[in-house]
Design brief:
The chain starts with 5 loop residues before the first strand and ends in a 12-residue tail after the last helix. Strand 3, helix 1 (42-51) and strand 4 (55-60) form a beta-alpha-beta unit. Helix 5 (158-171) packs across helix 7 (207-214). The protein has a six-stranded mixed sheet. Strands 7-8-9-10-11-12 form a six-stranded mixed sheet. It is an alpha/beta fold. Helices cover 26% and strands 30% of the residues.
Length: 226
Amino acid sequence: MNRNTYQLEILRVCSGRYINYSYLIVDRKSRQAAVVDPAWQLEAIESALERYEAELSTILLTHSHKDHVHLVPPLCQRYAPHVFMMQKELDYYHFSAPSLYGLKDGEELKVGHTSITGLLTPGHTAGGGCYWLEGSLFTGDTIFTEGCGMCSSEGSDPVEMYYSVKRLQQLMPADTRVYPGHSFGERPGQSMSRLHEMNAYFQIASLEHFVSFRMRKGQTSLMSFH
C-alpha cells in the first residue's frame, strides 16, 4: 500500500489463540521503517524489512499489553531502534525497553521524511495511544472496525474510552484508513466513514449509554460488540 511519503505492510501474526495485526511503515525516500505493535512472529517482520530493503529505526507501541509488545526485546537487540509509547502509559505500567521515549498527546516524531503524530487515547489502558499519519490511523485496542477495546483490566476506564472514541470519531477525516491491533471480521484498513456506519460505539451519543453498553453483563466474550 502506497501513500505519498510511505509504504505500508499489514502483518497478520499469530500465537495459539492470539491473532494480532502488526504494521510496517516504510519511508519511501530514506527506507527507514517503523513497526507498530510487534508481536509473535519475528520472521514476518524481518521478511517484510527484507522485501522493502528497509532499516528498522522505530518501534511504535499503542499500549503495554504483552500481545502488542512481545517482540520489542529481540528487535531492540538486533536493530537498536528508538521505541515510543505514550508517557502516561509508561508512568502507570512502568514498561521498559532500550531507547524508550514517552510521548505527549499530539507530539510528532519522524521516520525518515514521514511525520507521525501520537494521540493519547486512554480507556483500554490508562495511557493507550494511537498513531496518525497521512491517510492512516493505527489504533491498537482503542477502536476496532467493529467496536472498541474492553475496559475491565487494571488501569482501564470506560469513561475514558468514551472520550477517546468520540475524539477519534470527530478528529479523523472520513477517508482515513484505520488499522487496529485485532480484527473481528473486517480486514484492517477500512475507512473512517465505514466505521461511522458499522461500529456500534460510534452510534452511541451519551456517556451513560456508552459506559453501560461497554460494561454490560452477560457478554459472550470480552470482544463482544453487539
